[in-house]
Amino acid sequence: MADSAETVKKTVETATATVKAQAEKVQASAKQAQADGAKAFREGVDKSVASLTELNAQGKKNLEAVVESATAAQRGAEALSSQSLAYGKKSWEDGVAAAQSLSKARSVQELVELQTTFAKSAMETYMAELTKMTDVVTASVKDSFKPINERVSASVEKFQAAR
Known about the structure:
Layout: H1 2-103, H2 108-162
């Protein structure tokens, strides 16, 4: 019976040692899994924060482009308004001068010649002014869209690089 007790004791000791070793392995695996999970979580948070920071920077640049675009459009509108007022004033003055000139005509033929000269001059001035205004509008639109186009190009390049 002593042999059986000794065998049971050795079996219990072996089983205890095995269970203890397995428990240590499980505990080590759990610690490693926890450490790996914490590391993965930390990396995910870091990537998310970096992405949000980049997104914030892109948003700021986009807003700056919109402000720059609006400023360029405003400058164009101011230039066009100033040019229109100057043309209107000159056109009024030329009309008054033409009316005074027409009132001094001594014959119908002279009146027709003065009117024809005035009409031709007024039409040439109008066409020249229209060309200048078209140039101002074209330049204003081009200047207004330039910052937006640059941001779109930068975003497209960024997206293509990320693929």
